[in-house]
Amino acid sequence: MYLILLSIFFPVLAGTCLLIKKEAADRRSLLITTGICFVLTGVLVSATLLTAYGTGFTLFYLTQSLPVCFGVDAMSVIFSAMTMIIFLCAGFFSFEYMKHETKEKRYYGYYLIVFGVLNALCFAGNLITFYLFFEMLTLTSMPLVLHNGSREAIMAGLKYLFYSLCGAYAALFGIYFIHKYSDSLSFTAGGVLTSSAMTEHAGLLLIVAFVMILGFGVKAGMFPMHAWLPAAHPVAPAPASAVLSAVIVKAGILAIVRLVYYIFGVSFLQGSWVQTAWLVLTLTTVFMGSMLAYREKILKKRLAYSTVSQLSYILFGLAVMDAGSVTGGLLHVLAHGFIKSALFLCAGAIIYTTGKTRVDELRGIGKEMPLTMWCYTIVSLGLIGIPPTGGFVSKWYLATGSLHSSIPVFSWLGPVILLVSALLTAGYLLPLTIQGFFPGADYDYEHFKKREPSRLMTIPLVILTVLSVLVGLFPTPVIDYLTQIVSTIL
Amino acid sequence: MDFIRNFPCFSIMLCLFAGIISSGVKGRTARWINIVLLTTVTILSACTLFYTLSTGESFVYVMGKFPAPWGNEIRAGVLEAGMALFFCIIMLLSLLGGQHKLIAEVEENKIFLYYVLTNLLLSSLLALVYTNDMFTAYVFVEINTISACGLIMIRQVGRTIEAAVRYMIMSLLGSGLLLLGLCMLYDLTGHLLMSNMKESIAAIVAQGEYTIPLIVAIALMTVGLCIKCALFPFHAWLPDAYGYSTVSSAAMLSSLVSKGYIFLLIKIIYRVVGFDIFNNTRIIDVLFVFGLMGMIFGSLSAIKENDIRRMIAFSSVAQIGYIYMGFGMGTQYGMVASVFHILSHAATKSLLFIAVIGLTDVSGGSRKFIELTGSAYRNKWAGVTFTVGSLSMVGVPLFSGFISKLLFAQAAVQVDGKMLPALIVLGISTILNAIYFMKTVIRIYTPVEETSYPSVTFKDMKLYAIVLVFFIILNIILGISSQPIVDMIEQGLAMFA
Amino acid sequence: MIILVILLPFIAGILVPLLPFKKRSHWEIFLECAVILNSILVWYLMLHHSDSTFVLAHFTGDLNISFRVDGLSMVFAGLVSALWPFATLYAFEYMTKEEHEKIFFLFYTMTYGVTLGIALAANLLTMYFFYELLTLVTVPLVMHTLTREAILASRKYLYYSLGGAAFAFLGLIMIIVYGTTNNFILGGVLDPARIGDKTNVLLLIYVIAFMGFGVKAAVCPFNSWLPQAGVAPTPVTALLHAVAVVKSGAFAIIRLTYYSFGTDFLRGTWAQTTVMIIVMFTIVYGCSRAVKETHLKRRLAYSTISNLSYILFGAVIMTPLGLVGALSHLIIHAVMKISSFFCAGAIIHQTERNYVHELDGMGYKMPCVFGVFTVSALALMGVPGLAGFISKWNLASAAVESGNTVAYFGIVCLLISALLTAIYMLTIVVRAFFPGKDFDYSTLEGVKDPNWKMLAPLFVFTFFIILFGVYSQPLVDFFYDVAAGLY
Predict the structure, then answer these.
(1) Whole-angstrom Cα distance, residue B363 to residue B373?
(2) B282 to each of A292, B201, B215, how far by Cα in Å?
(3) Is the domain of B261 the same as that of B286?
């Protein structure tokens, strides 16, 4: 119990203290403090995952029927482990990167707070606790988005805020109804709706389910409420973009997993119109995200659009509600998490060293920063889904799961769109590699100089790349673990 | 205690004599005579009221030795005595409150005439209240009209003469119609004493004869009296007459003269025609509609008005509308509400007129709102009093206006078809009242940076201030302890039948 | 005793200009003591309440002016008496910059008594009486600055309020005529035997009376007086136009609905649907106007409009749970809104800046004020863990529980409004804390947090916002008891 609380509140409090504390003259001491906090939090989370697995407790009651409770289950483990790894990597990366930004203290403060809030989301034991921290996440991650203070960033931050709140309120709308038609709001594999409500109020509850999926889907960048994502992710400092795009959006995925598999239950939604509509939305998003990414010229924006598309891969897997596809979806959570954070860190490294943001300015970059670009290339291949990377395995599971399911039309349409999107992914990611390594004959080798960034940047990058490859090379333990989860919730 | 039965007749006579005596004395003496007279009549009426209350029934005083159906009679019940008492009090307060204005506005050698007219007015009011004979009533209606004209005209500025002429023409038209109706009724019944007429009419109606002539007669009399008390749409004469005459006259005209006619109408309804017969005619519906329209249009005109005196005058039109709405409901409750409103409006309207004079005096005599800005600070007493009057008009609890509103609304709820229109118009009219009265209150409490007008204190206007206090007390009494008064009105109306 | 708490503020208020105080601080202490004493008396009265009715005076017939402490009175009286001492303290500091303070405090304190009169009234007539009186004693407060704008605002306020009362009056009449008594009894007093075939008329009058009282509660379309009345000094806007006056309107509607007409009579009728739709519209309308408004106090006023309709929304669900929701929001909104208004007042007092776009970067110069403001903004949005969430939760679960389809849409309105609330409140917070990178801090030279007299109330309110957010059980249980008629 204390471990769970500590792993949530230690980073939150540490972050708050950082925010309140007077501006320290010495950058070094700030970094040391922050670094210690990162490590401590990492230790706390790992300890929690190792020792507190399967426990749960109620902290206090908001009102009589609304307990705030926490627990650690298999799903928490997946998400919180991923969160921790990416957060630490991106955190240390930012020690170097943030040199060229201002107001570092504020950045680290909110960074830590968001870390804690994400932990809380992973460990939330019921819907209301989840909702509480879901809102907190929006509010505390907004300062990361508008960090650099330009007008564009502030507008993007506000856009992010209002979209997210809009989604959260749509979800809240549903929570009111679920509260009435269920035994409790705690996450229970297979759903909590009362059987009488499922038969008598099926129509209403389906509407509620759809509204809630849309609502939580906002965070996961699902069409039609995806517009905030390409605006908000690129304007943040690169490490922040990395966690935003790789982890924070996963909160939306986690929300939908919790909602569909732990609150409504598969049996209630399977075969309903909600499933169909949801599938349509996810496939639309997959295709549209890729198309937009393909057309985008600014690297970080391109990656953000890619996130929109990739997240809907996961959602597609979840929406199919077949054992294989759900496994694939959850695996893609991990794969995409590592890959996308690595991609953003690459972009960050490039911006940090060269200051260039547009793809077409980056000719020959592979010669200048070979390590970074190699990482970039490897994870890109993973995102496209070329074996033996992580992306391949997850997409394989997604496609086979979909074909295996008995949903008409979508069972084959889904894989087709995924394939097309994979081609587009290749189309928007690989040009940078090609240009970077093969700048062409007219490249000016005169001014060429090696400018690989410092170790503080490259090591996290390499770690993430290795992880993404590992997921593809040795997927079996992870897949076993996931299959185990899926068997309980389906 | 039976000698009290002489009091009504005695007070009427006293007024007539006082009028005659006053015509031979100087202004100051006339004023004292008038004050003594009013005090006496007040006491006499109070005695009569207690007498009727203690006996619990009305009495008839036969003039001379001629018994009914030939002789002339005076009849006094709770309502009559109460009304007489009330009229005297209001008249006394109005005269005292407007006295300094009277001295200033009327030529010195004509002041005694003013008191002569006042005495005559009182005598005619008392006669209208007490008489049991239609023809006597008519006679005093005329006396009333003439003295009222005099009261308007005595302040000799151009507008008053014009106003008086207009008033005279409209009033005479009214009396003419009344006379016509009276003749027709006399023709139908052969009587002039109210109780006899009622019996005959009841008989005629029972036989089902002469329906149309009867209705025409009733209609003529009603319309005649409506014109005289300025029911919408016959109110064109009113703003000038109330707006430009000297303030005591305006106060008396609005709160007494028109009320005298209304009281006469009530008597006709109850004692001549009979309440049920009157209600069975369509006339009450017409009265109801005109009442409602009066409430709205009177207030609308008041809102547009830029002259405070005329604004209050237009407000009277609205208030008369309330009273007729009460008649129009055709129920006992409606009647009680109307009678209460007669009292309440009389008390409030005279208060307003008197208070306004205090405000205009400290604003260089101008009645334009722009000049009145901040006047409540220059004359605090008048300011407070005006505020009280306004609140009462708007119908804020504690003040008499609220009780009238309450009674009207309660009465309206009892009548099926008329409930909604009455209630809604009541609501709208309250809002309109609020608009123009509160606008004025805020205006007079808005301070001005610098002003050339002097302030007055209690020392400068002892009499005036005391009168104002009395007015406020009267209003609050009506507003707080209304139950005994309402009981008295119910008792009085019961005695009528 | 019960009449004492109403009269004491009157007396204290009148004594302020009359007694020859030598220094400003003397009468400040006197007044503050009187107010605190009165609040203590009120709480004493509430804790030792008896069921007896205190009859002050008889009007006509069985109409009387009488007082009684019941559950609902305890809620409102408790709220008012808890907030008043703080507001007075704050006003002392704020009013140092204004003129005619004594007159101001005369009426300000009198309002306390009148509001308690509304809270403690035992019947509709008494409540109506104090309701009218409330309008009259608060007009001078709105007029206080005596600018042309203030005069126009107070005029409008007066017309709207008196006009509203005129229509509310019709409801009073209906209860007098068709009710067994006009005392407040939970469940209504209408006499079925007398209603007969007049159900529809009664419903119509209910709607009219609802709108009448609704004027004070700023129901659309009768709400334009409230933002205009924001010209008054901030303590007035904060306490009266966010709590005492406007809540009296909501309180009166609750009395009318639950204690006079009765929910059994109204539930499921077209009247309920009508008022519910009006209320829902107001919720959204108020918020959208707040988003458009750039004047800080007016923005908050529009926010009040919307939030008042939250209360009314709870009330018109017409179930005990709805009443619980309404009461929770009645209390909680009061705390939240007074807190945000006091922040606005502190900003105006310290910097004389009135518009939202002038607040850039001030979060760093006035951290306490803007910290408090942020908390109140988040609470108003309904972020869980803060008080606003509790009341919204109660409202929405009452709406779900009622099974009324219109109420379902009401939830949607609540959430839309929550989103708009986020927009209009958080843009201020973002401006204050994240002014943009090329912001010139030298324009904020000398801006600092106000002194303790202003800050103390702010912190107390913030404390309560958080307290109610995480631990509202006793309060909500109390509301359940009230709604069940246990007091």
Answers:
(1) 8
(2) 80, 17, 9
(3) no
User: What chains are in contact with A, requiring at least 3 Cβ pairs below 8 Å?
Assistant: C
Residue C479 is assigned to a structural domain of this protein = yes
Where is the domain boundary, B228, B244, B275?
B275
Q: Which domain holds residue B48?
A: 1-275
Pick from A253, A187, A198, A212: nearest CA to A488:
A187
B to A contact (≥3 Cβ pairs closer than 8 Å): no
Question: What is the domain extent for residue C340?
Answer: 322-487
Q: Distance (Å, rounded) from C-alpha A437 to C-alpha B344?
A: 100
Same domain? For B325 and B188 the reply is no
Q: Which residues of B touch C155 (CB under 8 A)?
A: 438-439, 442
B17 and B143 co-located in one domain: yes
Is residue B29 exposed (0-12), middle (13-18) or buried (19+ Cβ within 10 Å)? middle
Domain count within chain B:
2
Residue ranges of domains in chain A: 270-490
Q: What is the pLDDT along chain A (490 residues), one digit of tens a residue?
A: 788 888 888 989 988 888 888 776 677 888 888 888 889 989 988 888 888 888 888 888 887 788 888 988 888 888 999 999 998 888 888 888 888 777 888 888 898 999 999 999 999 988 989 998 998 898 888 888 888 888 888 888 888 988 999 999 999 989 988 888 888 888 888 888 888 888 888 888 999 999 999 999 998 888 888 888 888 888 888 888 888 888 889 999 999 999 999 998 888 888 889 999 999 999 999 999 999 998 888 888 899 999 999 999 999 999 988 888 899 999 999 889 999 999 999 888 888 888 888 888 887 788 888 888 888 888 898 888 887 777 888 888 888 888 888 888 888 888 899 889 999 999 988 888 888 888 777 776 666 677 778 888 888 888 989 888 888 888 888 889 888 888 888 7
Query: How many Å apart are CA C470 and CA C2, to the nearest integer?
Result: 34
Question: Cβ separation of C162 and B394 shorter than 8 Å?
Answer: yes
* Number of structural domains in chain C: 1
Check C201 against B423: CB less than 8 A apart: no
With CA atoms as reference, the chain C residue closest to B392 would be: C132
Q: Does C34 map to a domain?
A: no
Q: Quote the CA–CA distance of C403 and B193 in Å, as a whole number.
A: 70
In terms of domains, do B142 and B88 share one? yes
Q: Do C159 and B423 lie within an 8 Å CB cutoff?
A: no
| Chains contacting B (3+ CB pairs below 8 angstroms) | C
Residue contact A135–C416, C-beta within 8 A: no
Query: Which of C397, C439, C473 has the CB atom closest to A180's CB atom?
Result: C397
How large is the ipTM?
0.86
Establish if C476 belongs to a structural domain. yes
Same domain, B82 and B224: yes
**B395/B435 same-domain check:** yes
C169:B434 CB<8 A: no
Contact status of C476 with chain A (Cβ, < 8 Å): yes
Q: Residue B440 burial (CB < 10 Å; 0-12/13-18/19+)?
A: buried
Are B403 and B294 contained in the same domain? yes
CB contact at 8 A, A73 and A107: no
Q: Of B275, B302, B336, which one is at a domain's C-terminal end?
A: B275
Residues B255 and B286 reside in one and the same domain = no
Q: B391, C136: Cβ pair inside 8 Å?
A: yes
**Contact pairs from chain A to chain C, CB under 8 Å:** 89
Chain B residues closer than 8 Å to C10 by CB: none
- Given CA atoms A186, A190, A196, A202 in this order, what sign does their dihedral have? positive
Distance of residue C302 Cα from the nearest chain A Cα, in angstroms: 20
* CB of B454 closer than 8 Å to CB of B362: yes
**Which residues on adjacent β-strands are paired with residue B368?**
B307
Residue C266: which of C177, C369, C188, C178 has the closest Cα? C188
